Description:
The chain is mostly beta strands. It contains no helices and 11 strands. The chain has strands at about 1-5, 10, 15-25, 30-40, 45-50, 55-60, 65-70, 75-80, 90-95, 105-110, 110-115. Strands 2, 4, 5, 6, 9, 10 and 11 form a 7-stranded mixed beta sheet that branches. It has a 4-stranded antiparallel beta sheet with strand order 1-3-8-7, with no helix packed on it. The chain is globular, with a radius of gyration of 13 Å. It starts with a strand and ends with a strand.
Amino acid sequence: VQLQASGGGLVQAGGSLRLFCRAYGRTFGSYSMFWFRLAPGREREFVSVIKSDGSTDYADSVKGRFATSRDNGKYTVYLQMNNLKPEDTAAYYCAASYGDYPRDDDYWGQGTQVTVSS
């Protein structure tokens, strides 16, 4: 599976962005799809997951503001980000895994930068 993330940009605090992760591979629907983020000087942080059965989980820092969804017919997973805060500024990465948590040797997309101005 190859993953391509897009949709990042510059937005003011309180604004919204929608990230996209397009997968290229025949077994997309069977993967759990994750979003992570990496900010300068910080460790990589889990953001969200949507499993093959559609169940979701989120980091506490984004609960109630972010929502992930998937369209298996379009081989795409989405991250809708609302009420963005400056601390959400980071490069956002999508990942695909059969496990409960993606390993470094699972499938990762390139990052898409999100910058939230105060």
